[in-house]
Amino acid sequence: MAVFNAKKREIECKIVFYGPGRSGKTTNLEYIFKSYKKQVSGEMVSINTEGDRTLFFDFLPMGLGKIKGCDVRVQLYTVPGQVKYSSTRKLVLRGVDGIVFVADSLKVRREKNMLSLKDLHKNLKEYGTSIFKVPLVIQYNKRDLPVPLMSIEQMELDLNRQLKVPSHPASAIKGDGVGITLKECLKLTLISLQKQLKWTQ
Amino acid sequence: MSNSADLSGSLGFLSLAEILQLLGANGSTGVLRLRSPYAKGPAFIYLQNGNPINASYSTKVGLDAAFAMFGLTKGDFEFVRQKVQIEQNITKSRMEIILDGLRNLDEGKVKKAGPIAIRKESGSAISNGRPVPLIKGPLIDYMYIVEEETYQDGEKIVESGRHGNWVWAILEGAIDIVKDTPKGPVTILRLGDGAFVGSLSSFLVQSNVRSATAVAVGNVQLGVIDSQRMAREFAIVTPGFKDILTSLDKRLKQVTHRAMEYLKNGHHADKPLRNAKPLMKQGAKETRAFKIVNGEISIVRETAQHRILLSTLSKGDFLGKVPFLDIGHEPYSASVFASEDIKLRTIDPEPLHREFQQLSTTFRNFIESVATCVSATTNVACG
Prior knowledge:
Largest sheet of chain A: 8 strands, mixed
Helix content of chain A: 25-40%
Number of helices of chain A: 5
Strand content of chain A: 25-35%
CATH class of chain A: Alpha Beta
Radius of gyration of chain A: 16 Å
Mean pLDDT of chain A: 87
Oligomer: heterodimer
Helix content of chain B: 25-40%
Largest sheet of chain B: 8 strands, mixed
Structural class of chain A: alpha/beta
Shape of chain B: globular
Radius of gyration of chain B: 23 Å
Low-confidence stretches of chain B: 117-124
Distance between the termini of chain B: 43 Å
Mean pLDDT of chain B: 83
CATH architecture of chain A: 3-Layer(aba) Sandwich
Largest interface: A-B, 20 and 18 residues
Strand content of chain B: 25-35%
């Protein structure tokens, strides 16, 4: 549910980076913040939540053009995975327009990925939307690490067999694959918004 | 709620985090006030161009006050657009305050201010091998306390079958509500700080027979409630409202009886309901409330294995959703069956709700305490 701000003539939508703890959600966001600095408005808010940091900043993607004469402003969030952060999760996930699921490629994290995806499914349901409807992109992060990794095929099978959403390998710490993941998610989000609001360009 | 507010509503619908986002997106300048029956004092946040610049709540100011206000999840808010001439002592960005505030709430650093909490503590009483729910209430308004009394561990405050109209509020400590059965006493509930001892019938009938025994657990300090004052307040409520309270008291007594039977026998031997037609299905989205004009109603909790009869209601009783009573029965958590000759009248909940809002805090707390007892006792009865 994007918000239309008549005063600023902006359409504000929300993209959330979800995934198991330590999978690199924060690294993704930090990389975006650093390398697209010109498109970022305002400060990055970083909250130390247990296990993971919660990040937030405002982002004005360039090259998207205007929709009906309005700029598109994107709020980027990460969300703390731990069960107890229910109020934070509620605020972040309610009315979410697009999701990037950051999966961890380490072999030892296989189960964590699947649990987190299941958790996302449950949470979205709770806030009135469905994992099959919401614009979703999966990122297989940490491809650069010299430790035993799962193959992309295996991860596709684990996580994307039913969803069949776009997926990208990435190394967020180097910045590889971060931009394309975000772009893909933005694209899907805008298409979905246009459908929702019955806009045609 | 004053008429000059530019934006107002209920915190249950829109939380502080959401209000701040809304006002932020709008770039509003003015004062946001939160009002909650459980607030420790007036709560204000001052905004300049959508950003919080200062706040005050009870004795706190600035960021501390703003964070503490995230605990107010019930009540009203109102925002008044006006020039703000107050020194800026919050420099954190809006989103930072929101996310940090919610984190504090989630981590338990800021407590959610609420009416009455039901807690099953590990250290709490055990009755027939099962934990007894502990019920607590909000802060006591000392205006209504005429005298303080102290009871020693094991002392009886009231005894089942005796007459008496006094009502106490627990200032400190805990008491057990005990029912005597042929097999010996069973503990139904444990009441803690802020909960009330005594029933609504203390105000409803001249001479009230106590339906259960209350026993001190450890040393307990009780405040005797000013019954004159409560009775005066009670005397002026409308007959419709009085009927609701009478009926609520009836439910509590019936549910307590069921709970006692369950604790004594371990199971229910409910006969199937005869000649009963289903009226509301458990979990149905029913928002209306009714008064029974004729016939009989059975309130039934349906669990995986059993149907448990909670209460049998008749002429004059209410059923359905009454906005200020959270008793954990129909329509969400119980089904309703009616006799053949049933006749119902719809009640308009609005005037009742307004009347409830106009009652004193103590009276409201008392009613809420009874409603919570109904809900907790029902859970005991259903095992």
